[in-house]
Write a structure and sequence with these properties.
There is one protein chain. Helix content is 34%, strand content 26%. It has seven helices and eight strands. Strands 5-4-6-7-8 form a five-stranded mixed sheet, with helices on both faces. A three-stranded mixed sheet has the order 1-2-3, with helices on one face. The chain is globular and about 55 Å long.
């Protein structure tokens, strides 16, 4: 894909110019572990995430400016992982097997996607899956990052994201990196509030799914008997 090649050329060129070394799993040395690229064919938007064995990349501003010259670029992030094992590799492999146009029409499909998404994520995170009327995945977007114990559910940001992407169906999800999957009373209350807000915008909240530490899942739609 042309856009992927352009991202790789720019990042590798930056690494060569500023003498940034790629990560070597055998020695544990080097900075850049992976370059993760996600492209939304429905939205024509691109996300780049650099997974680093350090806190920052040299001449970070110059790299960002270079990547922002790509018209489709909408998000550039850095994920720090200084551990010798690479949980992100599993996540990337699983997500790459799933096309952005996959139809998320069953709970097992949703749960498999979300378990891959949250693989290796060490803090609580809220993710919004944006779908069209045919239940095809338009885009997955991180709505909020929290601590290892809690995360804030931002209804305004969720609604704004759904409107921006012009989706008619959404699935909300968050993880419990240090506990089993469960919905608290606060989860249920805030989700019902969000559901009412989205209904007023003619956007259907299909489910709120929690993914636990060991890959166990809980569906609010199933638990509450949503029609």
């Amino acid at each position: 894909m042309k856009q992927n090649k352009e991202v790789l050329d720019r990042v590798i060129g930056h690494m060569e110019k500023y003498h940034v070394q790629p990560y070597d799993e055998a020695t544990g040395k080097g900075l850049v572990r992976h370059i993760m690229i996600r492209y939304g064919f429905h939205t024509d938007e691109m996300m780049v995430c650099l997974i680093l064995n350090g806190d920052k990349i040299p001449a970070e501003k110059a790299l960002v400016e270079s990547l922002c010259e790509i018209p489709e670029m909408t998000s550039i992030t850095i994920n720090v992982n200084k551990k010798r094992n690479i949980p992100q590799l599993c996540q990337m492999y699983q997500l790459d097997k799933m096309s952005d146009s996959d139809v998320m029409d069953t709970l097992p499909k949703l749960c498999n996607y979300l378990k891959a998404w949250f693989s290796g994520v060490i803090s609580e995170q809220v993710v919004l899956l944006c779908l069209n009327e045919s239940l095809q995945l338009i885009r997955s977007e991180v709505i909020g990052d929290g601590t290892t114990q809690e995360v804030f559910l931002d209804a305004h940001r969720i609604a704004s994201c759904a409107i921006r992407l012009r989706c008619t169906r959404v699935v909300l999800a968050h993880n419990h990196p240090n506990a089993s999957a469960a919905l608290t009373d606060a989860d249920i209350f805030s989700t019902n509030q969000l559901r009412n807000i989205l209904n007023g915008l003619q956007i259907v909240l299909l489910d709120h799914i929690v993914v636990g530490k060991y890959g166990d899942t809980v569906s609010m739609r199933q638990l509450m008997g949503w029609s």
